[in-house]
Amino acid sequence: MSGSTFGKIFKITTFGESHGNSVGVVIDGCPAGIKISHDEIKKFLARRASNSKFATQRHEPDEFEILSGVLNNITLGTPICVLVKNKCFDSKKYDAIKNIFRPGHADYNYQKKFGNRDYRGGGRSSGRETVARVLAGYFAKKILSELKIKITAYTYAINKIFIKNIDCAPQENFLYMPDRTAFKKAREFLKSCPEDDSVGGIVECKIKNLKAGVGEPVFDKLDAEISKAIISIGAVKAIEFGSGFKSAFLFGSQNNDEYYFDAKKKKVLKHTNNSGGITGGISDGSEIIFRAAIKPTPSISKLQNTVNDKNQNVKIKISGHHDKIIVPRISVVIESMAAIVLVDQIFLSCCSQIKRIKHNYFGW
Ligand SMILES: Cc1cc2nc3c(=O)[nH]c(=O)nc-3n(C[C@H](O)[C@H](O)[C@H](O)COP(=O)(O)O)c2cc1C
């Protein structure tokens, strides 16, 4: 089925089910000459598999193998395939619920669409699929770092506890929250939540140093492409840019970002950034800022009502230890998807003017 490929020039295809043989990615369109490091990939992947006591019990080492497209740690410009074997999982506990549709999961929907599904660990709809996105994100971020573009995503809120002052690096704590006071509050809040339930939150992402002029109106606007990429991540339910939903409550005079010319920097700048760095689907050279809402983890051990494949009303209690919160694990997936979109959109924008095409052509 289609739907597993994303991008136009920098194109990724992910494959694999949660409890199948492997998950992985094929990246087509990655330029040659990018230097990569296995240790960096390991560290980047480890962010997705955070091992706090509120996170997943599937402690998978995520040992990856680069099958093609890289020689002596330098990309070749040919398709890159990276594979991660699934090793640490117990499919037996899914036998008992294989005919029951778990609330909040995609079991019922996959059954209706395909008439058949891998019921083990959520199959293709599992968060495990995002290992492949993070692998591709690593390569995309390497390209962006050559262009001095920096992407950072971190926990902005856990339930209703928001960060206020950024006073530490997100990696300083297991909730990936760059505000020490908010982190402590959130940690206590999580401890006080019922053991059999889960909570959600918000991830904020900032992109620095992206030049003005990136984005492909009208259907492939930069914000539209970022939105698609981010909403395609499991458990992400909403996205807003800049002042986002709050802009609906502002006057035009409050929401418009006024421009000025900075003579020292010889640059057009803005006094505010309510647009989140994108207008008309094209970057304006200011920081891109967006936030994504993450729903509470659907797997909970609380007794819930549901139906089985014979349309009988039944009860379900999901056994085993499940993440109370997946928000901190998703930040690296968001960072990765944003990087993949940016690389693709920058490549497309390189052809937006004849002078750029000539500059590039005569320059090689
Ligand atoms: C990185 C990541 C990890 C996830 N881990 C879990 C998990 O441990 N338990 C769970 O119930 N859902 C988890 N999910 C969420 C489900 O994959 C997702 O909610 C479900 O497939 C339904 O899709 P939807 O929420 O996008 O509609 C995770 C998602 C991501 C992106």
3D architecture notes:
The protein is α+β, with helices and mostly antiparallel strands and 364 residues long. It has a single domain (5-242, 277-363), classed as Chorismate synthase AroC (Chorismate synthase, AroC fold). The protein is built from 8 helices and 18 strands. It has helices spanning 38-48, 107-114, 130-146, 180-192, 222-231, 252-255, 327-349, 354-363, and strands at residues 5-6, 11-15, 22-28, 64-68, 70-71, 74-75, 80-85, 150-158, 161-162, 201-208, 236-241, 259-262, 267-270, 278-279, 282-283, 288-294, 304-307, 313-316. It has a 5-stranded antiparallel β-sheet with strand order 1-2-3-7-4, covered by helices on one side. Helix 3 (130-146) packs across helix 7. It binds flavin mononucleotide.
